[in-house]
Design the sequence.
């Protein structure tokens, strides 16, 4: 089956690192994604990782993929108030490449 | 020059009405999608078209009918609107490689 799970809330202090975790079920997923959604806005692609990679770094963002455990994480270094948003994990799966989204993790950054 | 554009951005209508949402992409992608985001922010795929052919049709009421006149356009027509149809509807397209591109969303409110 296709299922993506995330914890729903995360609260961090400004300047700390944030780690958002995600698990997925479909081992044939080709790509895994992280999207950011700010209040009232659309979906912004933050980063993605191909399924044969373990890690990807892009400025303050680090994605780790443990394919054996079907676990994906997003680390945001030096978290800022502007990072407050909902973060969605998604897997690209199936013959027609549909995206299956997690429920989203609400990240709150406080001073 | 917006890659995936949806109209209208906001739509407020009464129960029982019929309405359409339009989506156009200028990326030359073959595959387009409709996703629904409910009030709890869950994102779920509804339909997908590949080069004008319906390839994904999830469990969606028959009142929802997608139409793709050409591969750059995917419209969503909803008959007999119900309160539970209130949501944000996102159009997306995907081409070669990793990239999904989402529109900015249509916020539908049924009163």
Sequence:
């Amino acid at each position: 089956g296709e299922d993506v799970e995330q914890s729903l809330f995360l609260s961090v202090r400004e300047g700390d690192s944030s780690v958002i975790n995600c698990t997925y079920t479909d081992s044939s997923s080709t790509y895994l994604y992280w999207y950011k959604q700010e209040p009232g806005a659309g979906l912004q692609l933050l980063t993605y990782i191909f399924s044969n990679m373990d890690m990807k770094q892009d400025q303050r963002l680090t994605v780790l993929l443990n394919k054996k455990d079907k676990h994906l994480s997003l680390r945001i270094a030096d978290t800022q108030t502007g990072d407050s948003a909902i973060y969605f994990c998604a897997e690209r799966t199936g013959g027609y490449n549909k995206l299956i989204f997690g429920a989203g993790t609400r990240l709150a950054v406080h001073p | 020059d917006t890659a995936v554009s949806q109209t209208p951005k906001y739509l407020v209508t009464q129960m029982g009405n019929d309405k359409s949402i339009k989506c156009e992409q200028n990326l030359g992608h073959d595959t387009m999608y409709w996703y629904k985001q409910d009030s709890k922010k869950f994102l779920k795929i509804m339909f997908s078209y590949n080069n004008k052919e319906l390839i994904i049709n999830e469990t969606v009421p028959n009142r929802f009918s997608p139409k793709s006149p050409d591969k750059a356009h995917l419209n969503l027509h909803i008959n007999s609107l119900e309160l539970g149809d209130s949501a944000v509807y996102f159009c997306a397209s995907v081409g070669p490689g990793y990239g999904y591109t989402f529109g900015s969303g249509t916020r539908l409110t049924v009163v």
Chain B has no helices and eleven strands. Chain B touches chain A through 24 residues (CB under 8 Å). Residues 70 and 103 of chain B are 18 Å apart (CA to CA).
